[in-house]
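Shape matters. As here.
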Amino acid sequence: MPSVNQALLSVAYLAPVQYFTKFLLYDAIWLETEENYQKQSYRNRCNVLSANGQMALTIPVTKGQPRVKTRDMRIDNTLEWQKNHWTSIESAYSSSPFFEFLADDFAPFYNRQYPFLLDFILDLQQVVLETLDIDVPVKKTTEYVKHTDDTTDDLRDSIHPKKRMQKPDPAFTPAFYHQVFHERYGFIPNLSIIDLLFNEGPNAENILKQSLIR
């Protein structure tokens, strides 16, 4: 276990496998909600594996909000993003071993509209944690702190979809698991947690544990 007992993460839409290993590694997780919202990150984007290869699903957010905090960022529900995302998820994972068992837990999020991005992400994340049978305290920040103290690992910007923005993570090495399109593309590591859940079901938590380097 790390010498510190909690971590500070950015919020993330159906975050990658690496992100959820932190929920096993720490005794408590803080989610950064008081920062100025950052574009082109996992905050409103996840990566899944479709028949055409890796695909990004991005939640549209309202424009014209300078220096808006993450907790105040609104979803642009004038676009049919929910229908498009669920269609893409179904297309990518309908033939996966556990899709039919888990689909009913996730489908409602693509029918009900949420005004705020944070509320949508947190409700969806709770379903993911329950599915993984992970019970760790998750708290929201109440103010922005540039530098954390020595009891908290600051991981806010360590997990990023752009390779040039990623930081080394000595506690994570992605463990192999079977993916629907493995024969076509080989193993694609660190996709959205739903890729792991739909492909591995109850074994997903074990894959997370195998991806940890303690």
User: Anything to note?
Assistant: The mean pLDDT is 94. The helical segments are 17-25, 81-93, 99-106, 117-132, 182-185, 193-200, 204-210. Residues 197 and 203 are 8 Å apart (CA to CA). The longest strand covers residues 45-50.
